[in-house]
Amino acid sequence: MNAKEIIRVNNLKKHNFRNNILIATTCLLVLLLSIACPTTMARSRSDAPKSLTSDQFMSLLRTQLHLTEDQETQIRPGIETDFKQRENIMADLGKNRENQKALKAELQNLQKSTEASVGPFMTNEQFEKFKTLYEEKIPKRPQEGGQTGRNRRNRS
Questions:
Q1: pLDDT at 145 (0 to 100)
Q2: What is the mean pLDDT of the chain?
């Protein structure tokens, strides 16, 4: 081999080495991202998290509001009623876009009713935190596929 051929072979080796390093780095980055953010990388709409159940919401209230056993016993029926009525409202009105104003109005009425039924059993501080948790955790509109979803806080 002459000097030109040796230089050309060395340049090809360098080029192939750089490409291999780039490919390996990209694969490593994708792997690390999938490990670090599995919900972001793998989640689709069909396997999005389900809405809270009334029991899960009560558990959240118990821990976040530091409810006593008496408070929990007094509040639970109002929360369970809210969840049942919300499910019915979503099933009846959440099916098409034409009903969105009615859906919003019904859900607002339900929220007021729920606040009225559970509020008397809470301190002012607990009640304010309850309203915040309700806004953040309780679905405001149906998701695609008929499942309920979460809405950003939308205070009027």
A1: 44
A2: 77
Which pTM was predicted? 0.57
| Chain center to CA of 38 | 14
Backbone angles phi, psi at 142, to 5 degrees: -75, 150
| Cβ neighbours, 10 Å, residue 57 | 19
Token pair for 8: 């050309």
All residues at 6 or more sequence positions from 104 whose CB lies less than 8 Å from its CB, including other chains: 140
**Cβ-based neighbours of 44, under 8 Å, separated by 6 or more:** none
Q: What phi, psi does 149 have (nearest 5°)?
A: -130, 180
Task: Name, in order, each residue with C-beta under 8 angstroms of 111's C-beta and a sequence gap of 6 or more.
Answer: 134, 138
Q: Token digits for 57?
A: 């919401």
What distance separates the 2 farthest-apart alpha carbons in the chain? 94
pLDDT digits (tens, 9 = 90+) for 132-155: 999 888 877 654 444 444 443 443
Q: What pLDDT score was predicted for residue 131?
A: 93
Q: Is 69 exposed, middle or buried (0-12, 13-18, 19+ CB in 10 A)?
A: exposed
CA 95 → CA 7, 148, 152, distances in Å? 70, 11, 20
